[in-house]
Amino acid sequence: MNNAGRALKAYDDLVGRREHVGMLSSRSGPIVDVNARACAADPGRWFRRFGASPGARRRLICFHHAGGGASLFSDWHRHLTLTTEVWAVVLPGRETRFAEAPLDRMDALAAMLVEAMPLDLPFAFFGHSLGAMVGFEVAAQLRRRSLPEPAHLFVSACFAPQLCLRERSRATLSDAELLHALESFGGTPKEILEYPEYLEMVLAVLRADFNLIDSYAAPEGGELRFPITAYAGMSDPHVPPAQMMNWEQWAMPGFTCRSFVGDHFYLNDQRAALIGDLLARWNDDAPPGIV
């Protein structure tokens, strides 16, 4: 495989895109409508279902990191029982929604996800990095609308809500500064950095994703509480385990934080152990007959 081929494969692996590069010119403006609510019969455009099971009695709904895609969770179903399905959120600007412009406001994104969220089975949320904050805000909006809530929030490698808001969003960084930030998180194939046509697409999505979290203001009132478990990489220089303890402010009694060997993307190497811990904690919360 030549360098260009490796760059395309690396981009596919990074954000899960499978469409031709030429689609970049067909991107539309911000999406303001939403699908009908997703369900077992039709996940819709907001979700990808991995390992569909006719015997599923609950769902783990997953939210990916900034610049990433639903394919991060493509093999998680291999670590679950047939009673639990994995559904991953598909955000505009990537994968099957590549032709759409990415969204850069958390409140608007969460409101659209609430409209599309499948509510026909019990569910829990797992969010990594940016995904943890998206999941938290979706849960908050579900509660405000008196809709079914996640049985548990599993948050990974992300500052707590009260610590997200920045005076200057990383979306305003120069390309060079944004590249430096991207590389500092790790997990970015070097081939991507060598081909401007792919890099341009990555940076456009990344700017929108960074603005989602950097402009996020935590809910006021201090009364919002969920069953929360936090996860961190022991060597994560961006969100070390001590920072994850700040999620306790939003947690019901029983909050805990577990660390795994690894950096910001510890979950790539610690997938089985992470999912095993998640399932054990979720099973403890589950009503009889659900697991």
TrEMBL record:
One of its GO terms (biological process) is lipid biosynthetic process. Residues 58-278 form the Thioesterase domain. It holds the Pfam family Thioesterase. It comes from the Bacteria. SUPFAM superfamilies: alpha/beta-Hydrolases. InterPro entries: AB_hydrolase_fold (IPR029058), TEII (IPR012223), Thioesterase (IPR001031). Belongs to the thioesterase family. This is Thioesterase.
